[in-house]
Write a structure and sequence with these properties.
The protein is an alpha/beta fold and 221 residues long. The chain has helices at residues 10-26, 40-50, 76-86, 101-111, 124-135, 143-151, 161-171, 187-200, 208-217, and strands at 2-6, 33-37, 58-62, 91-96, 115-118, 140-141.
Length: 221
Amino acid sequence: MNILIVEDHPLISNAYENTLKLVESKNQNLKFKIEVVTNCDDAYLRITNARKTERIDLVFLDIKLPPSKNRDIISGEDLGLRIRALLPKAKIVISTTYNDNYRVNSIFKSLNPDGFLIKNDLNPKELILAIEKIVDNTPYYSKSVVELMRKQTSNNLMIDEIDRKLLFELSRGSKMSELPEIIPLSKAALEKRKRLLKELFNVDKKSDRDLLDAAEKKGFI
């Protein structure tokens, strides 16, 4: 299996590598080829190349990653959408520190991951179990994810890639008049999206700062 780890924290990526090697040593039928990248640009280059050369079977994907240089990919979630489009057979394991139910639910709706790990839940025993199950084609969700899913049975909050980019650009100080040059929508369409986002985050009629504070607390920026 060709495995890609997309993670900008060396301690976490090392933990994945060591655990994968341990699982491999316990099963003679498994052979892992592991590659680590630390940012969206290198990850996107790797997955685009995988269409032409070696396939990628499994991706460990951190959600909170530095945006790409052209700001087209602003998080691991955006990268995950490209993996789904370019490598539909690849399994995706989400790894994140976010444990807000809205954020977790949004990731499930957009990516439908094969595994979902909250980093604070992880210990060596659980990481081994997660890898063994996912390699065996069984989805695995860590304890906090399961608890959040049980609580979030009727959540309809859906933030798409354009919404995330809008929030990201606003957080960087971009003006609404500038955004049509960055995001392929009219100013009126972007204003409507911003208004709907304020309603979703229960900050309707309040300032953009209130919107950004709410989005940051829930892990969308």
